[in-house]
Amino acid sequence: MEEHVRGKFWFDDGNVVIRVEGRDFRLHSSILKSKSSYFADLLSHNAAGPDVVQEAVEGCPVYKITGSKVYFLALLDGLYGDLLLTDKTPSCLTLACFLRAAHHWNFASCKSWAIEELARHHPITLKDFDQAGYPEPAKIIVLCRTAGVTSLLKSAFYGLLGQKTFGLKVPKPQKENGESNDDAISDNDTLSEDGDASDVDKEYSFDPNVEWGSSDGILSPDDTTRAILLLEFTAQEWMRISRKPPSYAFLSDYTSHASRSGNCREIFKNIWHPNVTEADFADEGWYNPLWALEEIKAIDWQGKGICSTCATRCREEWETERRSIWDNMDKELGIVGSDG
User: Fold this and answer.
1) How far apart are CA 314 and CA 281, in angstroms?
2) What's the pTM value of the predicted model, to 2 decimals?
3) 10 Å Cβ neighbour count for 157?
4) Range of the domain at 166
5) What are 293-316's pLDDT values in tens digits?
6) What spans are recorded as compositionally biased (Acidic residues) (predicted)?
């Protein structure tokens, strides 16, 4: 007879046993049905079906479901454990496992909570976004594809541009038997969180032994292509902005510059290239024009001869450029629709 191990969550007053990859969990059908349309359907059928094991454990019917026991454990930590109660910040890996489970077994409210938590630590708005500080962009992209999430994709792809070679690694050589030398553990076993020990201690993990799977940060060919096209888009935008001084009509408006020896457009022609095109930050503009435009805004243009009115209006135009680049990335990445 096949041996089944009791999982961490085993409640004496539970009325149903859920079996996932040989791990049994005695739970409450009322909680599962109220949170999940999948379990509401599964547990509402009294007749025996393919998911019902022809046995009972301590008087409880046993339901065998497909999926990862690791992800299911993360889900139960949210339903019964400390995940939603802890004062610590949930680790990215914990949220990833919880989100995958919530999506797989249709826990809609749990999925929404996980997306909101990920968005707190992976900002999705232009105002809060920081490419240099964006953690694990490739893993977030893969997670979004797995869980049908679109709201986190744009910031993740843009964060990816800040990593050398998009964070891709050369595959390890295969052994003679055709197996890879990569000993990373697969998703369905135990999934190591990156970062030093001090960072890990500050985060909440539903299981300290769980690590990222070897495929969790590997982009699909289509998403790799999207990343390359996005880099081409940002490079073109930066070239358009940086190679020529601004020529807004207000820079050469006679009325506003009548009391000056020259208009601001002519002054920009003399100071633009050394301060922008040849600046130290210019190289980063190819893959991070949003940050480079902030650097341009921060330059003391009045101190370099631009009138205060034109300097203010130019900063407004550059902020508009930033918003336009950010908004147009949806089209470049083909992002449509809302979170599924």
Assistant:
1) 19
2) 0.85
3) 26
4) 71-170+185-219
5) 999 999 999 999 999 999 999 999
6) 179-198
